[in-house]
């Protein structure tokens, strides 16, 4: 497969007059299914950003946090959600909170290779950061939950994680007198329910946003904000290394699912799309904000350093049918790798300390 | 030589049939479908053209109109003919923000 960059110089001759280079597909004629015809090679143009300024514009921070229409922001809800997020009584043992695995001390992850759940048992995957979750289109490494509200209830109930039945949790929260007025202020007349609990936690989580990093200051026009080495790293990131094919935009992810060739037996997204080859071993592309507070890396926490991550991509990983067509040996030089690391380090902000809330009794 | 001639014949035929039947072309540039929804008649085709810089995996799990294009490389165009009337939810398996509806009428 030619490098995507090579399409950029193509001239459009129009779809109708496009060159037919070969039939790639096959016809699947079956009862009760749409019929897929032959695939054709077509010359295309890419609307590639012209110049560094257009490229930089694609990385500008948004001005405000998006909240869904059916769960708008209120300060009361966010304050309640913060207490719930840090409250260990949401787990059956009263020993683990959301913050146990998604801690502000570790870039809103846990600093471990894989999470630790109920009974201190290791989980199968790395605890993802919740930074910038407000912008996510789909949740969990395997995309099994569609909203942050659904996500909030997932680990609470999961037997391997907080192991708490929702009915039991509602009874426990109702027995803590100071919670009642807070729920009432946030959700008048609705009371303590799974729905209001999830909405409060999700609202708080949406307020957890990476702060302005040196990269943002550079994007806004201050050339001194990052080093020349990091600027060259940004060029490699968007060019030769093709990182931006998946890690795109200000939060450095398009939320896509890709098998990046890690030698793990976990099929990830493939569990939900078993017939789709490219979804086997595919995991959601994480954003890269606060990245050097979030090691170890990858869905299985298997790579300890950014250098190891870049070496993995440079190598291309395990070549198997499910591996993304974007994965292939990159031929990066030692200098380019160092430039990429320098660039990635500019994505970490001076996160202000997060005060642990005083919890209701 | 004969093989080559036959091959050319087959692909030209395939191309012209596709071009005739496909009334709607859906582009994918910038990781978005060029239309949120299209309406077609039963038996007509929609052309999914990957004019983006990355592969896509266009598919549908809607009953009666299931299909899966697999990994569609940039610069590839594929026709899909819809056989059953109804609303067909088309997604990209890779990019969760890519969703559209093909409304197939009798
Ligand atoms: Cu896609």
From TrEMBL, chain A:
Molecular functions per Gene Ontology: cytochrome-c peroxidase activity; electron transfer activity; heme binding; metal ion binding
Post-translational modification: Binds 2 heme groups per subunit.
Source organism of this protein record: Bradyrhizobium rifense
Chain positions recorded as heme c 1 binding sites: 98, 101-102, 118
Binding site for heme c 2: 243, 246-247
Organism lineage: Bacteria, Pseudomonadati, Pseudomonadota, Alphaproteobacteria, Hyphomicrobiales
Function, as annotated: Involved in methylamine metabolism. Essential for the maturation of the beta subunit of MADH, presumably via a step in the biosynthesis of tryptophan tryptophylquinone (TTQ), the cofactor of MADH.
UniProt-annotated location(s): Periplasm
Keyword Protein transport: no
Domain Cytochrome c: 76-177, 228-348
Keyword line: Electron transport, Heme, Iron, Metal-binding, Oxidoreductase, Periplasm, Signal, Transport
Cofactor(s) this protein requires: heme
GO cellular component, one term: periplasmic space
The protein's name: Methylamine utilization protein MauG
Textual note on the cofactor: Binds 2 heme groups.
Main subcellular localisation: periplasm
Keyword Glycosyltransferase: no
Pathway: One-carbon metabolism; methylamine degradation
Domain of life: Bacteria
From TrEMBL, chain B:
InterPro entries per the UniProt record, alphabetical: BlueCu_1 (IPR000923), Cupredoxin (IPR008972), ET_Amicyanin (IPR052721)
Signal peptide region: 1-21
Species name: Bradyrhizobium rifense
Any Pfam family matching the protein: Copper-bind
Annotated keywords: Copper, Metal-binding, Signal
Gene3D superfamilies: Cupredoxins - blue copper proteins
Single GO term (MF): copper ion binding
Record-given protein name: Blue (type 1) copper domain-containing protein
Domain Blue (type 1) copper: 31-105
């Amino acid at each position: 497969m030619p490098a995507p960059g090579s399409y950029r110089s193509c001239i459009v001759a129009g779809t109708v007059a496009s060159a037919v280079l070969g039939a790639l597909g096959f016809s699947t004629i079956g009862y009760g299914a749409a019929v897929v015809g032959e695939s054709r090679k077509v010359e295309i143009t890419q609307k590639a950003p012209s110049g560094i300024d257009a490229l930089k514009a694609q990385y500008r921070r948004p001005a405000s946090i998006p909240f869904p229409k059916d769960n708008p922001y209120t300060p009361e809800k966010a304050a309640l959600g913060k207490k719930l997020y840090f409250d260990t009584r949401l787990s059956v043992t009263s020993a683990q909170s959301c913050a146990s695995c998604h801690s502000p001390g570790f870039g809103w992850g846990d600093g471990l290779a894989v999470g630790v759940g109920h009974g201190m048992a290791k989980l199968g995957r790395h605890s993802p950061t919740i930074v910038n979750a407000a912008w996510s289109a789909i949740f969990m490494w395997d995309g099994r939950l569609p909203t942050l509200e659904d996500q909030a209830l997932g680990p609470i109930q999961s037997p391997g994680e907080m192991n708490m039945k929702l009915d039991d949790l509602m009874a426990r929260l109702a027995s803590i007198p100071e919670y009642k007025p807070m729920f009432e202020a946030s959700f008048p007349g609705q009371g303590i329910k799974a729905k209001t609990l999830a909405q409060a936690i999700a609202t708080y989580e949406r307020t957890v946003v990476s702060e302005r990093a040196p990269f943002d200051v550079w994007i806004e026009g201050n050339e001194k904000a990052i080093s020349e080495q990091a600027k060259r790293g940004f060029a490699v990131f968007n060019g030769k290394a093709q990182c931006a094919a998946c890690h795109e935009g200000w939060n450095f992810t398009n939320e896509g699912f890709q098998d990046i060739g890690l030698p793990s037996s976990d099929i990830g997204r493939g569990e939900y799309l078993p017939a789709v080859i490219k979804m086997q071993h595919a995991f959601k592309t994480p954003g890269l904000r606060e990245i050097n507070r979030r090691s170890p890396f990858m869905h299985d926490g298997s790579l300890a350093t950014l250098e190891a991550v870049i070496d993995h991509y440079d190598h291309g990983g395990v070549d198997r049918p499910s591996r993304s067509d974007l994965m292939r040996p990159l031929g990066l030089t030692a200098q380019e790798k160092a430039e990429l690391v320098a660039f990635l380090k500019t994505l970490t902000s001076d996160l202000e300390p997060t005060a642990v809330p005083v919890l209701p009794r | 030589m004969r093989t080559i001639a036959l091959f050319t014949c087959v692909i030209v035929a395939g191309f012209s049939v596709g071009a005739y039947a496909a009334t709607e072309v859906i582009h994918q540039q910038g990781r978005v479908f060029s239309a949120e929804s299209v309406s077609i008649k039963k038996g007509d085709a929609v052309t999914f053209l990957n004019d983006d810089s990355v592969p896509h995996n266009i598919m549908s799990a809607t009953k009666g109109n299931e299909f899966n294009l697999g990994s569609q490389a940039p610069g590839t165009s594929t026709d899909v003919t819809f056989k059953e009337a109804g609303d067909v939810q088309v997604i990209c398996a890779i990019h969760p923000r890519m969703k559209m509806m093909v409304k197939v009428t009798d």
